[in-house]
């Protein structure tokens, strides 16, 4: 998120100080607003906080936040309403992550060849709600067939705690059994026929949307 830049009109150094005159920049009024623009209106990317400007400034100062940091807190609070922050990782602890999702998880149980082999039960989240905290250099990836699914797992202990599903390449599939205790309330499991993957995904009404913010 960009920070709004306040641009003031430049004063001309030319002209006599005794005359007391300053020349206006061509095409701008005395306040530095482009000619024809409504005075006081926020420019592109600027935020007009109106009566909340004092509260906003006090909030930033009290918590020592930049404008970007304060805006991120506000957006996260709005976009993550009803969600909780889960943490988890692999067995050895080399890979750790956090993910925002409901406390009531909708988990897929796929019977395709690889999901059956590794018991890959998972719930799907948008990429924006997942953050790898550590272990990026300790991950390796296995792909096969279409190579769209990215089966990432820890190089040390071999545990796959998350991966990129073929059905949702713009999101992540998270293993609920790799989450830390204390944030999951309920788990609903839905079987999906991965042996007929194309048909199953085509007929499923919501799976594609689960990785959309």
Termini separation comes to 17 Å
| Main beta-sheet annotation | 5 strands, mixed
β-sheet strand percentage? 15-25%
- What is the average of the pLDDT values? 82
Strand order of the largest sheet: 8-9-4-3-10
Topology:
Elements: H1 53-63, H2 67-79, E1 84-89, E2 96-101, E3 104-110, H3 113-118, E4 121-126, E5 130-134, E6 139-142, E7 151-154, E8 162-163, E9 171-174, E10 186-192, H4 197-203
Parallel strand pairs: 3-10
Antiparallel strand pairs: 1-2, 2-5, 3-4, 4-9, 6-7, 8-9
Protein model, in words:
With 213 residues, this protein is an alpha+beta fold. Helix content is 17%, strand content 24%. It has four helices and ten strands. Strands 8-9-4-3-10 form a five-stranded mixed sheet. Strands 1-2-5 form a three-stranded antiparallel sheet, with no helix packed on it. 19% of the residues are buried. The model is unreliable at 1-41 (pLDDT under 50).
Q: Could you name the key traits of this structure?
A:
about 210 residues, alpha+beta, five-stranded mixed β-sheet, three-stranded antiparallel β-sheet, 4 helices, elongated
Nutshell version of this structure?
With about 210 residues, this protein is an alpha+beta fold. Helix content is about 15%, strand content about 25%. The strands form 3 sheets. Strands 8-9-4-3-10 form a 5-stranded mixed beta sheet. The chain has a 3-stranded antiparallel beta sheet with strand order 1-2-5, with no helix packed on it. Strands 6-7 form a two-stranded antiparallel ribbon.
């Amino acid at each position: 998120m960009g920070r709004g830049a306040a641009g003031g009109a430049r004063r001309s150094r030319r002209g006599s100080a005794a005359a007391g005159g300053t020349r206006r920049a061509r095409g701008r009024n005395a306040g530095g607003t482009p000619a024809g623009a409504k005075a006081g209106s926020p420019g592109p990317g600027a935020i007009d906080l109106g009566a909340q400007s004092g509260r906003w400034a006090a909030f930033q100062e009290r918590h020592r936040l930049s404008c970007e940091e304060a805006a991120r807190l506000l957006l996260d609070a709005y976009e993550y309403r009803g969600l909780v922050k889960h943490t988890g990782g692999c067995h050895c602890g080399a890979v750790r992550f956090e993910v925002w999702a409901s406390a009531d998880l909708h988990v897929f149980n796929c019977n395709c060849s690889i999901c059956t082999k590794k018991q890959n039960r998972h719930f799907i989240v948008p990429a924006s709600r997942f953050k790898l905290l550590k272990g990026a250099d300790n991950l390796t990836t296995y792909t096969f067939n279409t190579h769209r699914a990215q089966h990432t797992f820890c190089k040390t202990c071999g545990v796959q705690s998350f991966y990129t599903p073929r059905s949702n390449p713009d999101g992540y599939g998270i293993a609920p059994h790799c989450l830390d205790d204390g944030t999951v309330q309920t788990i609903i499991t839905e079987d999906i026929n991965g042996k007929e993957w194309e048909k199953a995904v085509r007929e499923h009404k919501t799976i594609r949307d689960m990785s959309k913010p």
